[in-house]
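During the reporting period the student researcher (J.K.) took over the structure-prediction task from the postdoctoral fellow and processed the backlog of single-chain submissions. One of the processed entries is reproduced below for the supervisory committee.
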Amino acid sequence: MKKLAIPCIAIVLFSCVIVSCSTEDTPATETQVPTITTANALSSPISTTKEEVSLSFPEEFTIRTGTDGLEWGFERLYRYSYYGINLPIDSISQADMNDWIHYDQNKDWRKRTEPMLLSLIKYFNVTFEVIRNETQELYLSRRDNPYINLADEEREIPNPYLLYTFDLERINDYYSLDPARNASARQWLEEWLQTNEPYESYSAFMSANPQ
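J.K. obtained the following structure tokens:
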């Protein structure tokens, strides 16, 4: 069974960074979930050990604001998944994860400047292939489950193609609660992928883009 990163993060970030299971009580309405498939990467079948998969991402998310937003204690600018990790990563041990939690300069989710998953990817230099494979498995496990709505912000599947551009401005736009910023980031990614490939890792990105 896969080891989840969520429990150790919850210790530090409290319950707000855990992906809540409450939304699984109501079946998703499939026709109400528009999706977008990024050009020449997500629209093409991706070979896995299980089946041919085309990852698909919602154009709009159900955002939990209003009275239920009071639990955060501040006005959020980004979606739920920006502040936590809902993706199991087998290659990172629990001990290493605990060490990273103490190291992470953005551990205060009120002051985060980048998605928590991106911080983890950069610190451990996790490869694109690893995150893509983990994302595919998570996508397959939820895709046909009528009780999981992938357009719910608490059930969001990470977009590895966006994360491995390492373009923080565009990544933050993608996670923004502002629909215009989100749409702009999705359009940018479509265009970027027409002439570029996701970086293999953060170290590969840094080598290609020296400061």
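The committee noted the following: Residues 1-50 have pLDDT under 50 and may be disordered.
J.K. will present the remaining backlog at the next meeting.
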